[in-house]
């Protein structure tokens, strides 16, 4: 049974992203890095779907490939019933006013030569035919939504703090009033004291603007706070997906169990044992046969080394890719 909802706003089906490895004077392709391997999931309207996993698991590449900031190698991406991978560059450019990206690092994602006015007005001029007064009104309304004021419009990125820069990045992504946004770990580059403010702002804007959101993060506490459903990635593949609370309370895949066991608990009665994963993540240029996780799994059996498990439904709406679930 597929974990993809056919009626969802966004459907990702068997997405693949391979990066060529080139060597020698002729730059001959000698292999590929399997960054994303057969990833499938869906995002409902007005839903926050989180992608979580260790650094290098492919979650950011997945988000970029959905919006074709990186061209996928294979698979399908449907947005509101339309196959994005079949669109021309010009058609995709027009579609991007409905689909936006919030980058991880506001220090590098904002053009230092553009002031706030240019950063926010430029997307409106590209995507809409508006009068100068209408552009001004939209920019000032967006500034109000992110907690900033019109007197800051002439200032440049270097004149703002990290939290203010990320507010501007969020405003730039939302200025076209998109229905779908990919947020790539938008608080990890900020000080801890600022992270909660930006998360609360994003949650308020998501509800007010009725956004569908993919939230990419390695912080499991943040993911639980902000998302309604979650996909756990490892070595380019989704290991487990489902309702966030269901996955957190009843993790089925051994990788998900290990990740959640490492999350600090504020409950003094919680004495759950930390699961230590032995070994290193395999090289994505030479991924192991069978289950991607079998080289570090304490429940590995013969079939795990030979056959890659498909995501299967283990509870209503809860899917996991593991041969041993139900047998341990």
Please give a handful of descriptors for the protein shown.
single chain, 328 residues, alpha/beta, Rossmann fold, eight-stranded mixed β-sheet, four-stranded antiparallel β-sheet, 12 strands, 31% helix
Structure in words:
This protein has a domain of 169 residues: P-loop containing nucleotide triphosphate hydrolases (Rossmann fold, 3-Layer(aba) Sandwich). Helix 4 packs across helix 5 and helix 6 packs parallel to helix 7. The strands form two sheets. An eight-stranded mixed β-sheet has the order 6-7-8-3-9-10-12-11, with helices on both faces. The protein has a four-stranded antiparallel β-sheet with strand order 2-1-4-5. The chain has 328 residues and is α/β, with parallel strands linked by helices. It is globular and about 65 Å long. A hairpin with a 2-residue loop joins strand 11 and strand 12. The longest helix is centred in the middle third of the chain and has 17 residues. It is built from eleven helices and twelve strands.
């Amino acid at each position: 049974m597929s974990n993809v909802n056919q009626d969802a706003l966004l459907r990702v089906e068997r997405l693949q992203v391979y990066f060529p490895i080139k060597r020698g004077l002729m730059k001959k392709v000698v292999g590929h890095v399997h960054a994303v391997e057969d990833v499938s999931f869906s995002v409902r309207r007005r839903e926050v779907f989180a992608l979580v996993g260790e650094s290098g698991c492919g979650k950011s590449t997945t988000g970029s490939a959905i919006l074709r900031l990186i061209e996928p190698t294979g698979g399908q991406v449907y947005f509101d019933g339309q196959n994005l991978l079949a669109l021309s560059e010009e058609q995709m450019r027009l579609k991007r006013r409905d689909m936006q990206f919030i980058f991880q690092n506001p220090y590098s994602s904002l053009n230092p030569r553009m002031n706030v006015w240019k950063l926010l007005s430029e997307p409106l001029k590209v995507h809409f035919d508006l009068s100068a007064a209408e552009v001004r009104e939209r920019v000032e309304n967006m500034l109000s939504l992110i907690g900033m004021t019109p007197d800051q419009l002439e200032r440049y990125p270097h004149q703002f703090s990290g939290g203010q820069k990320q507010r501007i990045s969020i405003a730039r992504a939302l200025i076209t009033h998109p229905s779908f946004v990919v947020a790539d770990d938008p608080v990890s580059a900020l000080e801890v004291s600022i992270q909660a403010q930006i998360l609360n702002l994003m949650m308020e804007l998501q509800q007010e603007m009725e956004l569908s959101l993919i939230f990419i993060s390695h912080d499991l506490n943040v993911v639980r706070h902000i998302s309604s459903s979650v996909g756990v990635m490892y070595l380019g593949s989704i290991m487990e997906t489902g309702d966030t609370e269901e996955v957190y309370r009843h993790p089925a895949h051994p990788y998900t169990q290990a990740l959640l066991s490492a999350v600090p608990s504020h409950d003094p009665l919680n004495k759950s044992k930390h699961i230590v994963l032995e070994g290193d993540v395999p090289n994505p240029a030479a991924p192991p046969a069978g289950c991607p996780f079998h080289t570090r799994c304490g429940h590995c059996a013969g079939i795990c080394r030979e056959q890659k498990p498909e995501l299967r439904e283990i509870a209503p709406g809860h899917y996991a890719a593991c041969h041993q679930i139900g047998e341990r």
